[in-house]
Amino acid sequence: MKITLFGATGATGKHVVDQACAAGHQVTAVVRDASKLTRGDVTVVEADTMDPAAIEPAVAGADGVISALGSRNGRAPTTVCTDGAASILRAMAAVGTRRLVVVSASGLAKDNDGPLTRVLVKPLVQRMLRNPFADMTRMEELVRESELDWTIVRPPMLTEGPRGPYRTAVDTGVRGGMRISRANLAHALLRALPDEDTYGKVLTVAR
C-alpha cells in the first residue's frame, strides 16, 4: 500500500514507520523538520500539517492516510489533533483520497467498562486530561462529519513494551483494557487501514 503518515517522528509514529516499511509498504511521512527522519526507505515531505494546500501533494494518490498526531504539552490546552484533522480532511477531500485512520484515546468513553473503571478510574483520568481529551473529542467530531472512509482508533495508556497479543473491539470498549504498547498500536493502525469492516467505526485496542 501507499501510506501517508502524519506524526511520523512521534513515539507511536516511529513504530508505524518501522512496521510499515518492514511489511513492504510505500511510506510518505509528512514532518515539520525533515532532519528528524532520515530513513532511505521513506519519502519524507517537509510541510506544515496545519496548511491543507501544503499537504495535498503528500496525500494525493495514497491508498490510506494515518494520523498519529498528538500534543507534546502534557495536560496543557491544545488544538493539535483538531487542527491537524481539519487540515488533513480538507487536503484529502481536495485530491480525492478517501481512507483515513486516526489515533484518539479510549479514555473518552466508558463503553463496556467495569464498575471500578467506569465510576472511579475514567472520571479521574478525564479530569486530569481534560484539555487533550477535549481536543481529541473535537477531532473525532470532525472526522465523523466527513464523507471519508474513516476509522477512529482508541488506545488506553500507551507503553513502550514489545509487540505481542492484544484485543480489539468495534464501537465499544475493550473490557479491562488499561494499557497497550505503542508497537501494538502501530500494528493495529496498519491492520485497520485496508479493513473495510472498520470504515465508519471506532476501533478500541488494548492488551
Automatic annotation (TrEMBL):
Transmembrane segments: none
Alphabetized Pfam families for the sequence: NAD_binding_10
PANTHER family, per database record: FLAVIN REDUCTASE (NADPH) (PTHR43355:SF2)
Molecular function in Gene Ontology: biliverdin reductase [NAD(P)H] activity; riboflavin reductase (NADPH) activity
UniProt-recorded name of the protein: NADH-flavin reductase
Organism: Amycolatopsis albispora
InterPro entries cross-referenced by the UniProt entry: NAD(P)-bd_dom (IPR016040), NAD(P)-bd_dom_sf (IPR036291), Polyketide_Oxido-like (IPR051606)
Domain of life: Bacteria
Domain NAD(P)-binding: 7-195
